[in-house]
Amino acid sequence: MINEQLAPSSPRRTGETIATLSHADFRERVLEGDGPIVVEFMSLTCSHCAEIAPILQLVANKLSDWEQVFRVDIDAEPELAANFGIEGTPTVVLFQAGQEIGRVVGPTPEFDSLLAAVTEPFKR
């Protein structure tokens, strides 16, 4: 079960939420941000996005001391989505030092799969 994947001592994000970014704060928080950064490009009307949302939150909780996890609603920010060539949702883009180093396209509803997808590229 997913909840059993996290040990009781696992770090938790304050408020248990993933911040939604706008075009205005994307540069500062992601392109100029420190450390590994994960951004989910999603849509409120996307059923796959809704499916992975709680799993991505668990991943964000587990990695809160190491990675920052954000969300961009492509319906509210179509220009930002276009700038990164987002063609479908969910698309999870990994950034290091402001540069894209990887992405995961489509649903990955298993905790272990999503955790591996958003951590492995940073280990290179």
In words, what does this structure look like?
It is built from 4 helices and 5 strands; from the N terminus they run E-H-E-H-E-H-E-E-H. It is α/β, with parallel strands linked by helices. It has one domain: Glutaredoxin, CATH 3.40.30.10. The protein has a 5-stranded mixed β-sheet with strand order 1-3-2-4-5. The longest helix is centred in the middle third of the chain and has 17 residues, at 47-63. It is globular, with a radius of gyration of 14 Å. Mean pLDDT is 83; it is low at 1-15.
Number of helices: 4
The radius of gyration is 14 Å
- Relevant CATH superfamily: Glutaredoxin
Highest CATH level, the class: Alpha Beta
Largest sheet: 5 strands, mixed
Overall geometry comes to globular
Structural class: alpha/beta
- Taking all residues together, what is the mean pLDDT? 83
Q: What is the H/E string?
A: EHEHEHEEH
Q: Kindly report how far apart the N and C termini lie.
A: 29 Å
Strand content: 15-25%
CATH architecture classification name: 3-Layer(aba) Sandwich
